[in-house]
Amino acid sequence: MSFRFLVPSEKVPVVDGRSLLFVEGKTIALFNIASVFYAFEDSCPHQGASMWSGKLEGQILQCCAHGLRFDLATGYLLHSTQMKLSTYLVEVQGEQVFIVLNRGEQYAAL
Ligand code: FES
């Protein structure tokens, strides 16, 4: 079962900004790249480093720990499907931004 988390207005990143959210036990990074939002769990699939402070080039995010680069549009490691960020659907309704979470998956992880 999925549910939508309403991002508090002060946490909605401006264009080319990013924010970090704590939602029911998960740490979620939310990026705004050219007015498109990308949300993903703030854990690199390589060895779990935080991705939030990674270097961004377009929609490609580079992990600070070992330099792997991920395409935020798909979540996958660049030029590969071997690793993938845990991405979330983002919905925008007017001024409100929602992150869609899978509640069943969330509880399984606890
Ligand atoms: S932990 Fe991210 S590249 Fe190794």
From TrEMBL:
Rieske domain location: 4-99
Q: Does the keyword Iron-sulfur apply?
A: yes
Q: Which PROSITE patterns match?
A: RIESKE (PS51296)
Mind listing the UniProt keywords for this protein, alphabetically?
2Fe-2S, Dioxygenase, Iron, Iron-sulfur, Metal-binding, Oxidoreductase
Known InterPro entries for this protein? Rieske_2Fe-2S, Rieske_2Fe-2S_sf
Which co-factors does it depend on?
[2Fe-2S] cluster
Q: Which Pfam families match?
A: Rieske
What are the GO MF terms of this UniProt record?
A: 2 iron, 2 sulfur cluster binding; dioxygenase activity; metal ion binding
Q: Which family does it belong to?
A: Belongs to the bacterial ring-hydroxylating dioxygenase ferredoxin component family.
Its protein name is: Dioxygenase ferredoxin subunit
